């Protein structure tokens, strides 16, 4: 090919992608989309996933039919739900696995973020940024016990990484005890604490020093502490979700968390509570630690922390522990963590949670929801093994993955999104906005009942 021809082709390619970019930007700025737009978006999305994101998603999602003939492509959201490109409305009971505690695009959160955006989006990285200080103060007030100093992150896994590193620095120990069915994230440090074999195996060996004991089994926890002490592998920290989320909404036995706290104190280990999913009102208290009357040394937050508008996370720790980072605050850093937009979102989120008493609401609506679901499942004991929950963190466990998948697919087709994919549906999770109305709850229950009736055992 001559040089000229090659240049011409390159130029054409660039012009094409620039046209494409313009088309996409034009779509973003549109208030309403046409039927043709919707068709184009659907085609581009499915093709884009197949050719450039990961075709695997098209296989696993209940939102795509065989051969990708029908694909639900999301486009807008508000309140307790969202709409796809064709304008079909869904009640969102998956809630981004616990992101939307204050609802989708809560107006107060959106206002705080857009107001902040008009002034400054990201921080200079050198001057002192005010919202970080103010949010840290607020967190010191609302988190349990004497938790005081905050470090900000952009996601749950980053919060866990920060907690693990802080625990190592403070304790000068390297052993961590985690639990079976735990989920703490998928970056290499947090994955070490995560329990699921298929996610861990290809990446072994992970961070040395992690041990897993059965969640809820205090005797095994005690024995593991004893063995670690005898072998000189003293425990830096125990990391726990107060109620396991990804593991299938597993509520610990009575007194378990308090007993773990006592063991940590006895052996000089820290207690890290991973409240990435349980925090910010989800379980009926601002933090699940309060349900069990336990104060951790470090709490991990993310997901709903950014109000469903900004990615944001944090750890909050006791001064005694956090002061390991006083001398050199650059021991653990992240460019975007604690940025002004994320802090504005988190501050407004906390305001909404407190003002609208959403944790209390989660307790009340959650109890109603749970009872109604149990009632709806009566007579289907051959399909449903158990329905359990705390606040608006509810799990429906089926006898088989296939039943769960069929139920979640059926509910989706009828406008209710719940967790449950082809590979992970034995327990489907219900984690709606804490603002969900009773009417919406009733619709979800009615849909569940109808779908369950038509699914084979
Ligand atoms: N910790 C818990 C308890 C979680 O539920 C999750 C995510 O589901 C994480 C950590 C990881 O959060 P992220 O996906 O934001 O990294």
List keywords for this structure.
Aspartate Aminotransferase, domain 1, 4-stranded mixed β-sheet, Aspartate Aminotransferase, domain 2, alpha/beta, 15% strand, 457 residues, 17 helices
Tell me what the structure shows.
This protein has 457 residues and is α/β, with parallel strands linked by helices. It has two domains: 107-355, 3-Layer(aba) Sandwich (Aspartate Aminotransferase, domain 2), CATH 3.40.640; 358-454, Aspartate Aminotransferase, domain 1 (Alpha-Beta Complex). It is 45% helix and 15% strand. It has 17 helices and 14 strands. A seven-stranded mixed sheet has the order 4-10-9-8-7-5-6, with helices on both faces. Strands 1-2-3-13 form a four-stranded mixed sheet. It has a three-stranded antiparallel sheet with strand order 11-12-14. Helix 11 links the parallel strand 7 (235-240) and strand 8 (270-274). The radius of gyration is 23 Å and the shape is globular. It starts with a helix and ends with a helix. The structure holds pyridoxal-5'-phosphate (PLP). The site of pyridoxal-5'-phosphate has 15 residues, from helix 7.
Write down the overall mean pLDDT.
95
| Biggest pleated-sheet summary | 7 strands, mixed
Count of the domains: 2
As residue ranges, the low-confidence spans are none
Q: What is the CATH superfamily of the largest domain? A: Type I PLP-dependent aspartate aminotransferase-like (Major domain)
In CATH terms, what is the fold-level topology of the largest domain? Aspartate Aminotransferase, domain 2
Major sheet strand order: 4-10-9-8-7-5-6
CATH class of the largest domain: Alpha Beta
Annotation field: number of helices: 17
Strand content: 15-25%
Number of strands: 14
How far do the termini sit from each other? 63 Å
What percentage of residues falls in helices of 4 or more residues?
40-55%
3D shape: globular
Supply the helix-strand structural class.
alpha/beta
């Amino acid at each position: 090919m001559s040089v000229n021809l090659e240049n011409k082709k390159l130029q054409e390619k660039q012009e094409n992608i620039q046209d494409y970019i313009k088309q996409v930007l034009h779509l973003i700025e549109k208030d309403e989309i046409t039927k043709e737009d919707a068709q184009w978006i659907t085609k581009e999305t499915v093709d884009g996933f197949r050719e450039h994101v990961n075709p695997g998603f098209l296989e696993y999602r209940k939102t795509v039919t065989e051969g990708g003939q029908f694909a639900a492509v999301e486009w807008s959201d508000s309140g307790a739900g969202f709409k796809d490109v064709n304008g079909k409305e869904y009640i969102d009971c998956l809630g981004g696995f616990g992101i939307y505690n204050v609802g989708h695009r809560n107006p107060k959160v959106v206002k705080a973020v857009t107001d902040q955006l008009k002034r400054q989006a990201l921080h200079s990285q050198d001057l002192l940024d005010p919202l970080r200080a103010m949010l840290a103060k607020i967190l010191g007030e609302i988190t349990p016990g004497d938790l005081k100093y905050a470090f900000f992150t952009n996601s749950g896994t980053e919060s866990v990484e920060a907690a693990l590193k802080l625990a190592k620095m403070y304790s000068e120990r390297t052993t961590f005890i985690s639990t079976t069915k735990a989920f703490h994230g998928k970056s290499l440090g947090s994955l070490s604490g995560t329990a699921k074999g298929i996610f861990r195996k290809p990446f072994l060996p992970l961070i040395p020093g992690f041990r897993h004991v059965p969640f809820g089994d205090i005797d095994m926890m005690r024995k593991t502490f004893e063995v670690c002490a005898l072998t000189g592998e003293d425990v830096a920290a125990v990391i726990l979700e107060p109620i396991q989320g990804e593991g299938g909404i597993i509520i610990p036995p009575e007194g378990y968390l308090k007993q773990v706290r006592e063991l940590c104190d006895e052996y000089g280990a820290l207690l890290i509570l991973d409240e990435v999913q349980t925090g910010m009102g989800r379980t009926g208290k601002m933090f699940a630690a309060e349900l069990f009357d336990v104060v951790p040394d470090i709490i991990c937050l993310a997901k709903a922390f950014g109000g469903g508008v900004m990615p944001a996370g944090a750890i909050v720790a006791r001064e005694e522990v956090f002061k390991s980072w006083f001398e050199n605050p650059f021991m653990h850093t992240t460019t975007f963590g604690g940025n002004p937009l994320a802090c504005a979102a988190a501050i407004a989120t906390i305001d909404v949670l407190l003002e609208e008493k959403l944790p209390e609401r989660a307790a009340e609506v959650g109890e109603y929801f749970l009872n109604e679901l149990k009632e709806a499942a009566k007579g289907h004991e051959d399909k449903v093994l158990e329905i359990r929950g705390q606040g608006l963190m509810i799990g429906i466990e089926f006898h088989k993955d296939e039943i769960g998948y069929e139920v979640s697919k059926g509910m989706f087709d009828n406008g209710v999104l719940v967790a449950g994919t082809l590979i992970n549906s034995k327990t489907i999770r219900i984690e709606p906005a804490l603002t969900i109305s009773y009417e919406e709850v009733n619709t979800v229950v009615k849909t569940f009942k109808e779908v369950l009736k038509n699914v084979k055992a």
